[in-house]
Structures are given as structure tokens and as C-alpha cells.
Amino acid sequence: xxxxxxxxxxxxxxxxxxxxxxxxxxxxxxxxxxxxxxxxxxxxxxxxxxxxxxxxxxxxxxxxxxxxxxxxxxxxxxxxxxxxxxxxxxxxxxxxxxxxxxxxxxxxxxxxxxxxxxxxxxxxxxxxxxxxxxxxxxxxxxxxxxxxxxxxxxxxxxxxxxxxxxxxxxxxxxxxxxxxxxxxxxxxxxxxxxxxxxxxxxxxxxxxxxxxxxxxxxxx
Length: 220
Description:
Blueprint: H1 4-19, H2 28-50, H3 55-68, E1 71-72, H4 75-88, E2 94-97, E3 103-107, H5 125-137, E4 142-147, H6 155-175, E5 183-187, H7 200-206, E6 209-216
Parallel strand pairs: 4-5
Antiparallel strand pairs: 1-6, 2-3, 3-6, 4-6
């Protein structure tokens, strides 16, 4: 007899098999929505089983959440990704698509900020100039900027510094025509490292700013 978790995994596999073949002939946006529904349904089924709930009910809830989604990956988003990849080639800036369908720019310290500073470095300006041009072309997108620091210093220093770095980036974009109402900022201090803070190279990687661009799935 199958345990609830095993039933949930089986349901996830069945739902994925049902949804993905049905994507043939759809537009990219429709595919993303359908895939989101399938992933959401699968996750809901597994979670429902693991928590002792009803597998089918969990799948239904998950499908609704997955289909609605936070963001869609449209032709406009693809164009922005290609444009930013071209603009940042050789700069050390990483451009990628996140699992939730946002465009992510990860800008390392040698491009973005000096140690203990929140002033935009000259190397970062051409990247942000091109980025601002893209954002003004696609006003339906939203922007979220997150600043980070290395572990040098205390939270009392690092937390506000990370926010200041995000704010400097926002202000630079706003000065180039991007509406501030589209931009939210956050700072995580030293709490989300991507490298080893015990080395100078690792600390340099952790001093960074991340910019996320998303096209909302539903527009009010």
C-alpha cells in the first residue's frame, strides 16, 4: 500500500505528464502559464501528501497558484535578456532568468561599489545606462533591487550600507527616466553570501547588487 508521500509523488508525475505535452502549439506566454500550473499542481500534491492533507485538493490549489504566477516570460522579457547579455558581455555582470520568470542582473563589486561605499562606480554606469534604456522601452515591467555586503563589519554597518547601495542604483535609474514607482529596494547586509567570506576573493563576490525585472502575470 502506498504511503501518502508516495501518492503525492505519483500524482506529481502524472500531472506533469498531462500538462507538458499539451503545450504544443501554444504561444510562449501560454506555455509558461500551463507549465506553471503543472508545476504548481505537482508541488501542491506533494505538499498535501506530506502534511497529511488531501492530494487532489493540494494539487488543485497548487495549480491555481502556479497558473496565476507572479510573472510571465514574454517576448519582451526575452528581448530584454538578449539586450542585457549583449550590453554586459565581458563586464563580469551575470544575466540570467530566475525560476519565477524574472530577469536577474548580478553586478559584482569590481563593477558596482568600492569597499564600504554606496557610490556608483564608473564601470557600472554604462551597464545601468543601457539597462535604463531597456526599462523605458518596456514600462509594463517592475524592478526590485537588492544590495549586499561582505561579512566585514557589524550588522549595524552592513545592513544600512546594503540598502544604500540599492538606493543609489534606483536613483541612478530614476535620473535616466525610469519611474521610481516601478522600483522597490531592499538590503540583506551580509546575510546572503554567494562565496566564502574568509577570502578576499570571496568577500569581493559578496559585495554586490542584484537587480530583478519582472513582467506581472496580471495587470490591474
